[in-house]
Amino acid sequence: AFGQLAGKDDGWRKRGLRLPPGTMGWPLVGETLSFGKIHPSTSIGDYLEEHIHKYGKIFKANLFASQAVVSVDAELNRFVMLNDGRLFEPCTPKGVLDILGHATPMALSGDLHRYIKSLSVDFMGIGRMKSYFLPDAERYITETLASWEEGTPFQAKEEASKMMFNLMVKNVLSMKAGVPETERLRKLYMSFMKGVIALPLNFPGSAYKKAVEARKVILGVINELMKERIQKRRDGTDDIGEADLLGFVLEQSNLDAEQFGDLLLGLLFGGHETSATAITLLIYFLHDCPLAVKQLREEHMEIVRMKRQRGEPAALTWEDYKLMEFSQCVVRETLRLGNVVKFIVRKASTDIKFKGYDIPKGWTVLPILTAAHVDPSVYENVHKFDPWRWQTGSTSKALNDNYMPFGLGLRNCAGLQLAKLEIVVFLHHLVLNFDWELAEPDNPIASPFPEFPRGLPIKVRRLSLLQ
Ligand code: HEM
Known about the structure:
By secondary structure, this protein is of the alpha+beta class. Helices cover 50% and strands 10% of the residues. Residues 1-7 have low confidence and may be disordered. The protein binds protoporphyrin IX containing FE.
């Protein structure tokens, strides 16, 4: 799977390299099980706590059958991400590649990576966000919120997943929300994603096996839609054009079928569950922070009032979005404390020196993004959900330098602007229309992506602030 097999001596002892402290455990299993043990996603968990205590913020370990350097050090994390493509390369486990595809953006490097990344970033650029993603996000969000029944508990995570899936599948493949074909694809997608984080055990019924099968079916759907569109373009009957990623990529690129399918799957994957998790975390954190909800209501009521004064339609515009400043602070704080992506994985492409330690060529490096987000020496009252810490004037360089929920540099998140837009539009409609309470206690655990064991069951009450 990852890099080299642990335990194999690659000569670092002979070469006199000074590796970070740490123990390597058993060659194959190493410390993978303790590293992967679930813990609250608002913390780094016992394994990392204990290792920092024993060895400091940079240590070596045997993880995922590889010799690895784990970094809980924000400076090393930045160094790794800012040297992607020069000193570090992607290191995606084979099991993940079998599911996401070998041409998935996060596994590519060099010119092909740059090309696919720029296609993805252009697809989610400001122009398309204004004309497609903003109105679509608002439509799917308001439709979903309109279906919420007062007083009847439901799972917030499931609702967030549906909204984000419908939004992505419309923008990637022009598939409609609510129709059986889309629901079927969503169900397939769920098994697909469970497989991405499962171990690659290829026995019938395993999450990995199901995911590999789901991949085949989803790619089949994509191929059918692609053929249909190519035919329509030839016949001059295609009325979608570049309104979805399918048309956009057919027009803008000359990717082969495999690259094409993997890119579409990659954006569905990257852009669906991440944002849905962030929205669920937002509901969870705000529930315990009525002051933030009050300030959000004021911000969003003011926007509605101004629109009415100007005689504008109710639909949100890009200009309205730009005014939602406190909401952006709430999103930043949600991503800091919620830790949607706990860690990323790289491989050293050469021998590297950092803070007096050597990282030998070929070793796996695991920058733990959560670490700096919950470091009490960086954030005051680190475990408190405090959106005000991000308000202009009170943001220090240290806060920003340690904040990296979307990664950094060459391989940073292609959809970060879109993610923020989706979450803020959701926030607008949530706080203006509902009060909510948790129907049962449920807390996010890192497994390693944040999960709510009960799906965050909530009960809502409709408000009439907008009358
Ligand atoms: C709150 C939501 C999100 C979070 C926290 C998040 C986080 C991240 C992180 C940390 C990475 C870097 C991975 C690495 O360095 O190995 C990443 C990459 C990526 N993300 Fe996101 N993401 C979010 C939403 C989205 C959305 C909405 C999309 C697209 C629709 C998206 C598409 C991608 C893609 C394509 C990459 C790979 C970029 C590359 O390899 O160059 N993400 N994301």
